[in-house]
Design brief:
Elements lengths: L5 E3 L7 E7 L10 H28 L4 H27 L27 E6 L3 E4 L11 E4 L3 E2 L1 H16 L2 H17 L1
Antiparallel strand pairs: 1-2, 2-3, 3-6, 4-5
Helix pairs in contact: 1-2, 2-3
Length: 188
């Protein structure tokens, strides 16, 4: 697909595949140029390693399956974004906004070295796409879209995991140290 190209999922106007790339942070934010990109990549790798360790400890402590699934969603989503960022730039040519489609395994290599690639986002769900009424002050006649972000499956997994922990497992934050330390005491 060309950058910015889209089509409806099953012909729906509110569910679309929309091809964009971002620097790797949520909602396309970036910081610090190349140094920021490397910092973000290293931070992600450390965070995923830590989450993997926490999952292992909670598994050994016999914690509920739903909690482990929630943390695993966060782990898998973060790992997916790391893989995308690490290798996408190495195997594809640049995707210019008004240019040709990116080429897979271009001669001379991809557009970015290891850990410096972009992350592909493709899911777009503008559930409401309308205009504000003309009589409204300041916004009258302007376009209004509800749920504008374009995201990927990894982002959805992370968001689902975080929301499920916040809604159903808030007590893990209070019991977290007890759970992890009680298992250490049992092992001694």
């Amino acid at each position: 697909m060309n950058y910015g190209e889209e089509f409806g999922i099953l012909g729906l106007s509110w569910a679309r595949i929309h091809f964009v790339e971002n620097e790797g942070m949520a909602f396309g934010f970036s910081f610090g140029g190349d140094f920021g990109k490397i910092f973000l990549s290293v931070f992600r790798i450390v965070a995923v390693s830590f989450i993997g360790y926490i999952i292992w400890r909670l598994l050994k402590a016999g914690q509920p399956l739903f909690l482990l699934i929630s943390l695993s969603l966060i782990f898998a989503g973060a790992l997916g974004n790391i893989i995308d960022s690490a290798f996408y730039g190495m195997v594809f040519s640049e995707s210019p906004f008004f240019g040709p489609k990116a080429e897979l395994f271009p001669e001379g290599g991809g557009y970015a070295p290891f850990l410096m690639g972009k992350v592909v986002d493709m899911l777009y769900f503008p559930l409401i796409d309308t205009h504000w009424p003309d009589w409204m002050p300041l916004m009258g006649g302007s376009r209004f879209q509800f749920f504008k972000p374009v995201f990927n499956i990894a982002d959805a997994a992370i968001t689902t995991g975080v929301i499920s922990i916040l809604l159903f497992h808030r007590n893990i934050f209070q019991e977290g140290e007890d759970i992890l330390s009680s298992k250490e005491q049992e092992e001694e």
